[in-house]
């Protein structure tokens, strides 16, 4: 999961197709920074495990989330044949 305050990561994920397990963008101004931990916890409680595979934006008064576009979602590493019992 990539947690950032830098909007440029959205461009990397969507335009340059960087693969990430999930992207959370915190867009809370410096004057309200004391609310960041509470807003992040609220997002985790609201979205839970669905944060993975999604682009989520957390703002001072709202949260929004959408699925990552095909090709940008994280593809987990697979086990080798020997580890799978082959």
For the record, the count of structural domains works out to 1
State the total count of DSSP E strands.
4
Q: Give the SSE order as H and E letters.
A: EHEHEE
Shape by Cα distribution: globular
Strand content bin: 15-25%
Report low-confidence residues grouped into runs of 5 or more: 75-86
Output the structural class: alpha/beta
Short synopsis of the structure:
The protein is built from two helices and four strands, in the order E-H-E-H-E-E. The chain has 86 residues and is of the alpha/beta class.
Topology, please?
Layout: E1 2-4, H1 8-14, E2 23-27, H2 36-47, E3 54-59, E4 63-67
Structural summary, described in words:
The chain has 86 residues and is α/β, with parallel strands linked by helices. It has one domain (2-67). Helix content is 22%, strand content 22%. It contains two helices and four strands. It has helices at 8-14, 36-47, and strands at residues 2-4, 23-27, 54-59, 63-67. The protein has a four-stranded mixed β-sheet with strand order 1-2-3-4, sandwiched between helices. Strand 3 and strand 4 form a beta hairpin. The longest helix is centred in the middle third of the chain and has 12 residues, at 36-47. Residues 75-86 have low confidence and may be disordered.
